[in-house]
Amino acid sequence: MINNLSYGLQKRILIILFLLVPLALLAVFALYPAVYLVYLSFMTWDGFSPEKTWAGLSNYKEVFSNKEIWQTFLHNLVYLLWGIIQNALGLCFALLLNSRLRGRNAYRVMLFMPYIMNGVAVAYMFNYVFNSEYGSLNTMLRSLGLDSLAISWFGSPGAVNHVLGFITLWKFMGLNMVIYLAALQSVSSEIVEASRIDGANRWQTIIHVILPNITKVIELNLFLTIIGTLEIFDLPFILTKGGPLGASDTFLTKTVDTAFHFNNFGMASAMSLTLIAAVIVILSIQRMVTRRWGN
């Protein structure tokens, strides 16, 4: 029977058969959880009871009216600030290491090394650095006679998020540097040489020639940075558990606590969808800004 089919039809049937398994896996592990998340956001469920109670929009109303929840979102903005600094430093190092600097390959490896380290190992390493009693930073400050600066870094509400943001900068700046470096090496050397022949200095060449040619890469890095900062979870969870008094809680750690500590999966689902909506809005704004700059 198959032999009687045309070659084109056999080809389409074969393609469909090959696609069945990946599409089934996508439906089971991606589409179904997404649809179920939306369904749970309209329910009241403790995660254990077989019955779920219809809650309508009450979960979303609670999310938008709860100041404590949105306070955690402001903590994410601190990470976003450090993420922008991280991108700026990554671009600066990429510009520096794209030149004929002696030993540049060794510097590239050194700057990229933190990114390949395990996130949990990085968290515990910096726990020893910023520990208030025996941490290396406070020990150094006390040895220099700067005892007033030797504070409890993880115990200070004003400092804890900036400390965690600095750790993310240390870990991910090398990745940004490598991406920017690859983009810089794709810029035509003829364009750069032409700008120098026309009398542009190095700074003018960077601003008016090099950066406009890597706008898409800058947009990509900012895209990844925004997503990462709005979904930060591992560092505050491992190092501070959201302390002191919730000062280092992020939107995602608050969502996880709502689901697994307070057994309110409906509210947690609504918070998750709210976070997705916030990411879409912020990324849309970022895209409009970078597009205007690129033009």
TrEMBL record:
Localisation: Cell membrane
Membrane topology: Multi-pass membrane protein
GO biological process: transmembrane transport
Domain of life: Bacteria
Domain ABC transmembrane type-1: 72-286
GO cellular component labels: plasma membrane
Major localization class: membrane
Residue spans crossing the bilayer: 12-39, 77-97, 109-130, 150-170, 220-239, 259-285
Keywords: Cell membrane, Membrane, Transmembrane, Transmembrane helix, Transport
PANTHER family (UniProt xref): ABC TRANSPORTER PERMEASE PROTEIN (PTHR30193), DIACETYLCHITOBIOSE UPTAKE SYSTEM PERMEASE PROTEIN NGCF (PTHR30193:SF41)
Family as reported in the entry's similarity comment: Belongs to the binding-protein-dependent transport system permease family.
Record's protein name: Sugar ABC transporter permease
The species this protein was found in: Cohnella nanjingensis
